[in-house]
Amino acid sequence: MPRNDRFLLRPYYFSVFQGTRNKMEEARMAQAKLNKRTVDALNPPKAGQAFIWDTEIKGFGVRIGQTGTKTFVIQYMNKEGRIRRVKIGRFGVITVDQARDLAKIKLGEVAAGEDPAEAARRARKEMTVAELCDWYLTEARAGRILGRKNRPIKESSLAMDESRIKTHIKPLIGKRIARHLTIADVEAMQDDVKNHKTQKGRSGGRGGKATGGPGVAARCLGTIQAILGHAKHKGLLSEHPTKGAKKLAGNKKTRRLSVAEIETLGKAMVYAEQQGVSPTGISVIKLLLLTGYRREEGQAMERAWVNPMGGFVAFPDTKTGGQIRAIGPEAIKVIVAQPQVAGNPHVFPATTGDGPFTAASACLQRICGFAGIVGVTPHTLRHTFASIAAELGFSELTIRAMLGHASQNVTQDYIHVDEALKLAVRRTSDEIAKLLAQGAAKLDRLRLVA
């Protein structure tokens, strides 16, 4: 037998399977040159399936079942001596000549020592993007995937990842085989999210609607790139298939309050309290403006973290890890003035339960509505704190330290806080408090006049 035929079956038999385990009638050998005429002439068997094998290419045949469906196949013996059969395509979808060309390629792979059936089996078992995303969320929540500074990824970050996966990534590329993704695929996904193709209305509950847009699109690309990177690191992928994909440039938020707007906000805070707006919410807004803290750092602050005498707050965890952050006397006054609730450790307790107040954003919008100020978020207050510090002449490095962006040895030493940093925070906080008070005084004057 020629060397190239070593792993090919010869001869081939036309068999009819009777549908029971113990009965199989072997019929005469059925061979013919496969062409449209011979395939059209095939009639379905009464039971099981039947084959006709091509006389020109050994191992190339057509299979017909009881329903009349005709499928081109190849049959061969692999290196382990096992008979394998692989479907090439359905007659009518592809022609006999197209099937013959595909059969030559596949049987050539067999002659080279490959096993197309095993490759097809592996392909069926390869992870889709959706399956890879599910794996990532499970592993990350179990603490087996590390993020920044080799620490487990925060639950808040995973919640945002899960939202992007569910709303945008899975609907657009979830069914794709992860290994076969290309840069063009993920950039096209990013473009679809940017153009609102995954936009959805409000689904009920407290969540908002998914709108997409450039910012969300860039974050979706970042999420899938990170997932693929973790999969490569853990050995699920041999290579990162979309490394080098270009993320959309974000529109950096630079909105900050002017001096006049800070005064107007101070006036609106007094008015808001008179109108029944939550005093706790107003206090959170004031604290964020006086400290430059992130929204969650202010809202979820616990009393045990605050050291009024030392002039700092020791956060056990923040966006960039555990930190000690300087705080000025004006902000300390806001904290000390908050009523304590038995069993609730937070500076700003929720009205029910033992959790923190969580409606700072909604409260800020109401206050800004009274003030006629637009485009303000809790992060705007953080930018405003930095802006006032810059106007007072503090350097960019100092301001980064004030905001908790500096290196470990500047802001995260739990024994010592730099006195110069405390002074910078105090002067900035005092200046903002002065502007808020000036605004509140204007409201008082208006009230007296009225």
From TrEMBL:
<dbReference type="InterPro" id="IPR038488">
    <property type="entry name" value="Integrase_DNA-bd_sf"/>
</dbReference>
<keyword id="KW-0238">DNA-binding</keyword>
<feature type="domain" description="Tyr recombinase">
    <location>
        <begin position="252"/>
        <end position="427"/>
    </location>
</feature>
<dbReference type="Pfam" id="PF00589">
    <property type="entry name" value="Phage_integrase"/>
</dbReference>
<dbReference type="InterPro" id="IPR013762">
    <property type="entry name" value="Integrase-like_cat_sf"/>
</dbReference>
<protein>
    <submittedName>
        <fullName>Integrase</fullName>
    </submittedName>
</protein>
<keyword id="KW-0233">DNA recombination</keyword>
<dbReference type="InterPro" id="IPR010998">
    <property type="entry name" value="Integrase_recombinase_N"/>
</dbReference>
<dbReference type="InterPro" id="IPR050808">
    <property type="entry name" value="Phage_Integrase"/>
</dbReference>
<dbReference type="Pfam" id="PF13356">
    <property type="entry name" value="Arm-DNA-bind_3"/>
</dbReference>
<dbReference type="InterPro" id="IPR025166">
    <property type="entry name" value="Integrase_DNA_bind_dom"/>
</dbReference>
<keyword id="KW-0229">DNA integration</keyword>
<comment type="similarity">
    <text>Belongs to the 'phage' integrase family.</text>
</comment>
<dbReference type="InterPro" id="IPR011010">
    <property type="entry name" value="DNA_brk_join_enz"/>
</dbReference>
<dbReference type="InterPro" id="IPR002104">
    <property type="entry name" value="Integrase_catalytic"/>
</dbReference>
